[in-house]
Amino acid sequence: MIISLARIIMLTWFALALIAWTVDLDSNQINLEQIFAAPSLNSLYGLLGYDELGRSLVLRLIDGAGVSLFVALSTVTLSAVIGTFIGALAGYIGGRTDRTISRVIDIFLAFPGLLLAIALAGMLGPGLSNVVIALSIMGWVGYARLMRNQVLSIRSRDHVSSALALGRDSLSIIRLHIIPLALAPVWIEVSYGIAGAIIAEAGLSFLGLGVQPPQASWGNMIREGVRYLLVAPHAVLAPGIALSLVVLSANVLGDAMRDKLDVKFQRQR
Q1: pLDDT tier, 21 (very low <50, low <70, confident <90, very high otherwise)
Q2: Phi, psi (rounded to 5 degrees) for 56
């Protein structure tokens, strides 16, 4: 039941993001007559109420869904590709290369992730593309460490030794014979990475280091609504609940995927 509900929420998020990408919603249209208007069933635009400028929270929530999905997919894709390649290279080659990459990973892991993202976003400046770059620089290390550990257990298997005996080069062995076998835990990390990227983007936007107004983001919507929390709590509740539901659903589906791929868990069932 919970997993099905999580899937519905994630599909709804994807659908809203696609609408935001393909339809000009004009979510910045100001309507002074609707300033802080409460949620109403009289119209679709007023279903979640209006903000301090009379902008429809429904439209801004949809635009925010598009931003969050873009950041999540871009960040996770860049982080996973870079981290997987670097981790596989370190685990397969070993020696000085492995030690150097491991030290770099340890240095990144020594800093709190969100704090490092805040520092990077502060240096790069606010903006959607800079948020993706900052989160990708922060996120690749988890995939690299995970892939390195997987490769260390795979590189000594018979099929890898056979490929070496047949004269395969290292990159081909990594790409064709090692990475495909080590991707299962990476997919689990990706599901958690999506939730982490959404939270991080919202946090940076809330601090003013991410997506800038008037462009809608769930983080800056919460930031703008906090100032009027006692007057119009719906301006905070709408993006806050949406953010919580999507992150929770991503984590639930990540747990379900982990349990499905865990051989020991399946045997216990």
Answers
A1: very high
A2: -70, 125
